Amino acid sequence: MKLSVILPTYNERENIERMISSLTSVFQKNKINSFIVVVDDNSPDGTGKLVDELKKKNKIVHIIHRVKKEGLGKAYISGMKYSLNDLNADLIMTMDCDFSHDPNLIPNFIKKINEGYDLVLGSRYISGGGVHNWPIYRRIISLGGNFLPRLILGLKSHDNTTGFRCYKKKVLESINLDSIKSNGYSFLVEISYLIQKKGFKIGETPIIFKDREFGETKISKKEIFRTLKTLFRLRFKN
Ligand SMILES: Nc1nc2c(ncn2[C@@H]2O[C@H](COP(=O)(O)OP(=O)(O)OP(=O)(O)O)[C@@H](O)[C@H]2O)c(=O)[nH]1
Ligand SMILES: [Mg+2]
Fold this sequence. Notes:
Elements: E1 2-9, H1 13-29, E2 33-40, H2 47-57, E3 61-65, H3 72-85, E4 91-94, H4 106-114, E5 119-123, E6 130-132, H5 136-153, E7 165-168, H6 169-173, H7 184-197, E8 202-206, E9 208-210, H8 222-237
Parallel strand pairs: 1-2, 1-4, 2-3, 5-8, 6-9
Antiparallel strand pairs: 4-7, 5-7
Helix pairs in contact: 1-2, 5-8, 7-8
Bound molecules: guanosine-5'-triphosphate and magnesium ion (MG).
The site of guanosine-5'-triphosphate has 21 residues, from strand 1, strand 2 and helix 3.
């Protein structure tokens, strides 16, 4: 089974090298056959150039250089297409590059996939999951961002804005990725909704989300309104 881990990056120079070496050692330790696909939006801090160098020493590393910052959703889509078409991966994971998502949890996702799930979500909101070091306003926004998709769209999973995920190839192949209109967090809600509607089996594995130590957040306040807009667009389309 071939895995591809997509790491979208925008100004992650302080994290990327450590992240690639953590991932590489998790793969070695657990005998996982995996690629790392960095999707960089021409980061002004030179993340992309650094990965070009790291790639020379580590053959599992691939990079997609995008021309400009276009948001997380667009970055995921290009990483997914590359993983399916160029790498012929069987499993496609997405995760953040800032260590909010612990690379050591990757084997848990694969275990769930082997139990028969088509999509596995790294969930903060099931038993054993949680957030660490988050200010109260982030907790409230995140809880709302997960409760509302359940209420408005009938999503059954408990963490629908998590970016720590593992998709079976057939799930992504069944979706017209270019038809997904939303970007950012709402991309995650929209793709979950499409996958649930197609009747795929969605599972969850607990994660503890840690706040980033290095670098800055890229998620803007506009994101909240975008997510609300997406929820109502999807709700009233059907
Ligand atoms: N390629 C690309 N990557 C992005 C973009 N926006 C964010 N990212 C990356 O996506 C991941 C998640 O973004 P973060 O800024 O950490 O968002 P967050 O985790 O909600 O915010 P923090 O808690 O502050 O870290 C990180 O690896 C970012 O570098 C983008 O527009 N393009
Ligand atoms: Mg983050």
